[in-house]
Amino acid sequence: MTPPHLLTRYRTVIVEGHEGTRRDDLVADLAHLGFLVRRMPTTPHHLDPTRPYRELLSAPGRLAVDGSIIRELVYGPLRRGRSRVTWIQALDFAEAVAERDGVMLHLTASLPAARARQHGEEAVDAAAAYVRVFVTLAQYVPVVTLDVGEPANPIRAHPAQEYQLW
Fold it and tell me: Which of 15, 40, 60, 163 could in theory staple to 138 by disulfide, Cβ–Cβ 3.0 to 4.6 A?
């Protein structure tokens, strides 16, 4: 059983992970499983960052969203010193995903130490920030971590790293 098939028990899948994680194959698999796939812009809505997500989550059917406001919680503080998304908005988003029978999919990529150094300090900081964010969000919505590895390596699920706390 491949990891995308594990996700069929959910009606909503939010795909998120640090920049550079391979996701195209996973998103294509979700589309083949009947999920309507939406890719979100990298910058949030200027007035209300959660508005596009509320609109998407109100639609019927199975939905997979590639990218979310979680990216802003991670990269905003790293690049601008602050996030344009508040924790209240992020927690409301997580609750809305959970109410829609959803899961947040935390994508990671195992890199050898030499390659990790090439990606710089921001990549290391972002990976740690994603873990902190998803541990917090797991109090409101199921979170599953998938290691999408390098292009030659298969996707591996890490059930022991599920952050679901409820």
Answer: 163
